[in-house]
Description:
3 helices; about 70% helix; about 0% strand
Amino acid sequence: MFLKPECAIIVFMSLVSVILPYAQIIVSVILVATILLQQSAAGVGGALGGSDMGSFHQTRRGFEKFLFYLSLVCAILFALLAFLSIIIK
């Protein structure tokens, strides 16, 4: 009635290989959205080498802090999923 351990591993790996691309797409869309929603403290002038004398350091609070940590988690998760897809193939 139950599968042998070898067969169970093969079934699990085939299931993971089917679900993995969809998980990568979902995580990548969330990652892109969280990065685009974050506000940048550096202006365009500072990024291009111009002076940004009006800029100051701002601590992340509330939703910005949530987006920051969510983008870190999504980036790590995406890297792990990519590494897993390389191992499975």
